[in-house]
Write a structure and sequence with these properties.
4-stranded antiparallel sheet, two-stranded antiparallel ribbon, 59% helix, single chain, 10 helices, 305 residues
Length: 305
């Protein structure tokens, strides 16, 4: 009974303190809410464009797929890639790789947009550049050098920032890849994503063409030196398949993957989630106000003692 009375008495004191200090609680909470609204409005909108792709499988039906099953071991021993199958893991790894993204940045010449843009003006459809990083009038980098970093960002530094704009998600049941690109301008987010996928096709195409040509050179140079007729037949078949692989790499408009859903221009912002920011910040301001009230009450008790 004494414990219950003590708990009830402490609870009553707690409620009394809150009631007596309700003005402080309301003021601090209101200030926190107002500040969170103001700060959330300073965060520029970002827009995300998505596209869905799957690894190309048509080359694995017969032809290259069949020869890979029959002579794959021999080809591997000879250092020959039969191809014929575009792996979803290959697509994911390529889309996230340094070499691929750096080559895309250099090809499209978008270092300034990646690193210096800090917003987008919807009314004028113009990008907003950070004047402390890049002078748009003189077209010069004005960032203050720090350590190994110069005024102009390196390709490695630009890759790091650009990779944060890209997300690749895989549906494990269907192996469908959703490739997303987030940027301040919805038009540019769509444009860059389309160009990124085009670059992926060309990147995979050139890699396979290079591998096929190396294989053809090897097979052509060593075929005549083989005395066993059965192996000569195998090499002839491998040679034919490498020609087929090279032909496919040259004629297919999209290589290595198939598009299931094209990139689109987003109409709704992806971030920031201002409502969530305000709600969470207001809650923490409310908790902070209660803590402030009790700390102030405790200090008062200590001083009086």
């Amino acid at each position: 009974m004494d414990n219950k009375k003590t708990v009830s008495s402490d609870l009553a004191k707690f409620v009394t303190i809150l009631i007596d200090s309700y003005k402080s609680i309301v003021i601090i909470t209101f200030i926190g809410a107002a500040l969170s609204i103001f700060l959330s409005l300073q965060i520029p909108n970002k827009y995300k464009s998505d596209a869905k792709i799957v690894a190309s499988t048509e080359d694995n039906k017969g032809g290259l797929g069949a020869i890979a099953g029959q002579f794959g071991g021999l080809a591997n021993m000879a250092g020959i890639s039969l191809g014929g199958k575009s792996d979803v893991n290959l697509l994911m790894d390529t889309l996230k790789s340094r070499n691929f993204l750096k080559s895309f940045i250099e090809k499209e010449d978008i270092k300034v947009e990646i690193f210096a843009v800090e917003g987008w003006d919807m009314s004028s459809n113009e990008l907003l550049f950070n004047p402390e990083i890049y002078d748009i009038d003189s077209k010069k980098w004005v960032r203050k050098p720090e350590g190994l970093r110069q005024s102009e960002p390196s390709l490695e530094e630009t890759y790091t920032k650009f990779s944060e704009m890209i997300n690749v998600a895989r549906n494990k049941k269907t192996d469908l890849l959703t490739v997303s690109l987030t940027f301040y301008s919805p038009e540019i987010s769509k444009l860059w994503l389309e160009k990124l996928l085009e670059h992926l096709s060309e990147y995979l195409r050139e890699q396979d063409k290079l591998e096929a040509q190396k294989s053809l050179d090897y097979l052509s140079n060593n075929r005549k030196e083989i005395a066993i007729s059965e192996l000569r037949v195998v090499f002839a078949e491998l040679l034919r398949e490498q020609h087929q692989k090279l032909m496919l790499a040259n004629v297919k408009s999209i290589y290595g993957y198939e598009i299931r859903d094209s990139a689109y221009m987003p109409e709704e912002k992806a971030s920031p989630k201002r409502a969530i920011i305000v709600i969470v910040s207001t809650f923490f301001a409310f908790v902070l106000s209660i803590a402030f009230v009790f700390i102030r009450k405790f200090i008062g008790i200590v001083k009086n003692a």
